[in-house]
């Protein structure tokens, strides 16, 4: 049976405050030795993920912007990917809407709801709100599908969500921002379809693990064989009602390392 790991990044594979993955080195070594697919399932952009993969030393499929699209490196594990679309040197499966459609809605309502999205933030502002390095903040603005935003009055988010629904969109909450995304898109839809695709490609049953720390990871937890909730930076756990869920003792990358070694290998 082929094992696959799907993981959120901020607060899970990466530490919440310093974005380090150093505590996960032992787990990473095991993952690389066994050719276990390590699929980042994140709100981050394609450009951000490619840079992170280079730093981690992996070339793996990844899911961007809260389940908007799956990118697979060409020639990945010798699989036949000819039937898939191609974009920027990757084979790709789209789940979300294009960025211009999402931003069009955002701009229509940003003044009425006092919204501030990435498209209106300078690099310095993104750095201020995220603590990202300049290079990473620049890459975070290179969006293809979704718009992270802040709202002045959280009590108005339900009204905005209703308008979003009427326009084929929805709002999900991440660790730092709300995200405006396609209505039928989430991390769970992407994980479910990715598993189905790879089961066909590998011609082998897949056992999937899902690692995450936030509310927007719940759809992923609901669509993997083993959900693993990482303790968040406040010492709490995202609510997860799926059966047999496992919870880490540590936060961030140390929690990821702990649970990979405990349950995957």
Question: What this model shows, in words?
Answer:
The chain has 265 residues and is an alpha/beta fold. It contains nine helices and 13 strands. The protein has helices at residues 25-33, 46-56, 99-109, 123-130, 134-140, 157-166, 187-202, 218-221, 252-264, and strands spanning 2-7, 38-41, 62-64, 69-73, 85-87, 90-94, 115-117, 147-151, 169-173, 178-182, 206-212, 226-231, 246-251. α1 packs across α9 (252-264) and α4 (123-130) packs across α5. The longest helix has 16 residues, at 187-202. The two termini are 13 Å apart.
Short structural summary:
The protein has 265 residues and is of the alpha/beta class. The chain has helices at residues 25-33, 46-56, 99-109, 123-130, 134-140, 157-166, 187-202, 218-221, 252-264; strands at 2-7, 38-41, 62-64, 69-73, 85-87, 90-94, 115-117, 147-151, 169-173, 178-182, 206-212, 226-231, 246-251.
Encode the helix/strand succession as letters.
EHEHEEEEHEHHEHEEHEHEEH
Strand arrangement across the biggest beta sheet = 5-6-4-3-2-1-11-12-13
Helical segment count: 9
Strand content: 15-25%
Task: Specify the overall morphology.
Answer: globular
Helix content: 25-40%
Total strand count, please? 13
Structural class by sheet pairing and helices:
alpha/beta
Could you report the average pLDDT, rounded to the nearest whole number? Answer: 96
Rg on CA atoms, Å: 18 Å
Low-confidence stretches: none
Please identify the oligomeric state: single chain
Describe the largest sheet: 9 strands, mixed
Termini distance?
Answer: 13 Å
